[in-house]
Amino acid sequence: MGKFPIAERHILGVLICKKCKTRNSKAAERCRKCAYTNLRPKRAKKKEAKGK
Ligand SMILES: [Zn+2]
Hints:
binds zinc ion, 3-stranded antiparallel sheet, alpha+beta, globular, 3 strands
């Protein structure tokens, strides 16, 4: 069964700004911080525990 943890499902509903890496809601058309329109959907493939 393909059951995902709630945390990952939450991450899937996020768009990341390619310019400033700000998280925006899935419904966002542009970055709320820098107004950049090139957002990419957040994938739950890699773990982001490390960060940088
Ligand atoms: Zn941005």
